[in-house]
Every structure is written in structure tokens, then in C-alpha cells.
Design a protein that fits this description.
Strand content: 5-15%
Order of helices and strands: HHHEEHHEHHHHEEHEEEEHHH
Radius of gyration: 22 Å
Largest sheet: 4 strands, antiparallel
Shape: flat
Number of strands: 9
């Protein structure tokens, strides 16, 4: 099952095709290594991606990635039920669009349908994945997993990286949520902040009192440093009025509508122009160009983006 989940959409990749060529033998070999405890996680291949921020991705071998999927399948339902509702990263029936919808709902409720001024505190954790303490993470996992064999394997995966967690493992997404669930529980139950939501290491707290929100910053930072070995990014602590717009996950939420973030808009326009140039030069097909265009139009469906849509594709309607 893990192989089927992992290989979906990857069957044109050379390493995946090579693994598939001797699929049964490769899977049985992996099984035997686990059963005999001779399994060792292989090396990572590192490369950079821009999404748009430059990130260093570490890709494991196919066998290891299949194993990551198998581990994820078992651990996800065990831990997910203990997460707060308003954690939206890498969870079933969550995601960026649902997070933004929830933010809008919070804004309407707290502002009494935009009849009252409210404030939004937005924070980001500094070098989150690189700063995760592997020992602390293992202790958090041990609270729910007491099987010795499972813990042996989980530790193998976590210790396969020198420090922190690698961007690229499907397990890293779950481990990140396990780690930051401690923050979620602290904000919701200790600080009793009702209008809080988080996507990965970005989180927002809404409130009616500006001073109260300012006061939360050192309290949360102390908790992160003392409990998880993390700290808030000092340059990414933003407090602003709702009517100024709340920048979150690529969109800016305003009292009566939602628009695309300016940087996101510029990035889309640049990418489309680059694709148009490739089309004109015969480097890509018209079908490939149109597929890319539809993905950008899909982003615009979630905001007031009619003017941008007209610049991209005047003949296309939402």
C-alpha cells in the first residue's frame, strides 16, 4: 500500500522505474531488513527549490521513501486525533484554502460582521525544521507510542539526518505537527486564545486588544525556547488591524473580500510570461502551456482576481 501511495504520479522518474523493475524482490528485501533489524537509512540527495523562498530539499532513496509512507500511514491517525482543529498543514481535509476560510470566519465573528476593529498577530518560527530538537521530538512520540520495535524504526528515520528534520520526507510533515502541537495546546489551553490558527510554522492570533496581543509575543517566545528549543523570527512578528489586510498563505484577507498577495501576483505574471516565451520559441506545447495556465487560474478562483485573470487569459471565465 505504501508503494502504491508513493509511486502515484512518479512512474516516469528513473529511480522509481528502476525500483519497480524488481519490485517484489526490493520490497521483500526491505521487509527482511526490518524484520532482522539490519535496516539502515540510506543517503540523501540535496537540491534547491524556490517556492518562492529558496529551500534546501533532501531526497531519500526510493526504498526509504516507501518506508516513510508506511510509517506515516500508521502514525498519522494515531496522532492526528490529538491535534487541535485549527492546525491546517499536511492534514486530511485541511490545507491552505481551508485555513484562509477559517481566518475569514474568525474575523467576521470577532469583529461582529466587520462592525468592530480587531487586530491580528502573525508570527513565524525561525529556521523551524533545522531547529527541531530530535531528542525532544522522540520524547513527544513516546507519549503515544510504546512499542519497542516501532520506536526503534522511528528513531532510525529521525536520526538519519544530522540535526533537525529534512525538508522532503513525508514523515517530516507529521513530525513537525507533533512538535508544534505543544505550542498549539499551550496557546489554546494555557493562554486561552480562542482565535488562533496555525499552518506549519506560521500562526495567527486575532484579538480585540492590541496591547494584549503584544504581550503574548514574549510569553510565546519564552515557551518555544524553554520547551521546544525554538524561537520566533524577530523580523516576522507582525501586528496590524484587520482593515489593513491580513497577509496569510499567499492571500490578503480584508473585511469584505480577499485578494492575492502582491508578491504572489508578480510571481505568477513572471512565470506565465516565461512560459509564453517558451511557447513562442517552440520549447513547450500549447497543451502544456494551457495546463500551467489553468493551475494559476485555479489560484485566482479563491480571491478577487478578475483583473489579473483578464491579463492572463481574457477569454477564460471563472
Amino acid at each position: 500500500m505504501a508503494w502504491r501511495e508513493f509511486s502515484r504520479g512518479k512512474m516516469k522518474k528513473a529511480d522509481v522505474l528502476q525500483f519497480k523493475f524488481n519490485l517484489e524482490d526490493n520490497l521483500f528485501q526491505l521487509h527482511d531488513e526490518l524484520k532482522n533489524k539490519t535496516y539502515h537509512h540510506s543517503h540523501y540527495t540535496a537540491f534547491n527549490v524556490s517556492d518562492p523562498k529558496l529551500r534546501r530539499i533532501h531526497k531519500a532513496t526510493v526504498g526509504d521513501r516507501i518506508l516513510h509512507h508506511a510509517i506515516f500511514r500508521i502514525l498519522y491517525p494515531l496522532f492526528d486525533k490529538s491535534f487541535i482543529f485549527d492546525s491546517y498543514s499536511c492534514r486530511v481535509e485541511k490545507g491552505t484554502h481551508r485555513a484562509v476560510l477559517r481566518l475569514e470566519k474568525f474575523c467576521r465573528k470577532l469583529s461582529r460582521n466587520n462592525n468592530k476593529n480587531i487586530f491580528a498577530l502573525k508570527c513565524d518560527i525561525r529556521k523551524f525544521f533545522a531547529s527541531i530538537d530530535q531528542d525532544i521530538l522522540l520524547e513527544l512520540i513516546k507519549r503515544k507510542v510504546d512499542d519497542i520495535e516501532a520506536l526503534w524504526l522511528i528513531e532510525k528515520i529521525i536520526r538519519s539526518f544530522p540535526s533537525g528534520l529534512p525538508l522532503g520526507n513525508v514523515t517530516s510533515q507529521l513530525f513537525a505537527n507533533i512538535y508544534l502541537n505543544e505550542l498549539d495546546q499551550f496557546v489554546k489551553h494555557n493562554l486561552r486564545e480562542k482565535y488562533y490558527l496555525r499552518y506549519c510554522d506560521d500562526f495567527i492570533i486575532l484579538g480585540e486588544d492590541e496591547k494584549n496581543l503584544c504581550g503574548l509575543v514574549p510569553v510565546i517566545d519564552d515557551f518555544l525556547q524553554g520547551t521546544l528549543g525554538l524561537q520566533l523570527h524577530p523580523d516576522k512578528i507582525i501586528l496590524r488591524k484587520q482593515r489593513q489586510g491580513i497577509d496569510f498563505l499567499g492571500y490578503v484577507v480584508l473585511p469584505h473580500h480577499r485578494v492575492l498577495r502582491t508578491k504572489t501576483k508578480r510571481r505568477i505574471m513572471k512565470k506565465i510570461q516565461r512560459k509564453r516565451d517558451e511557447l513562442d520559441n517552440g520549447n513547450i506545447s500549447e497543451e502544456s502551456f494551457n495546463q500551467g495556465l489553468q493551475s494559476y487560474l485555479g489560484v485566482l478562483k479563491h480571491c478577487n482576481g478578475w483583473k489579473i485573470k483578464q491579463k492572463i487569459s481574457p477569454k477564460t471565465s471563472f
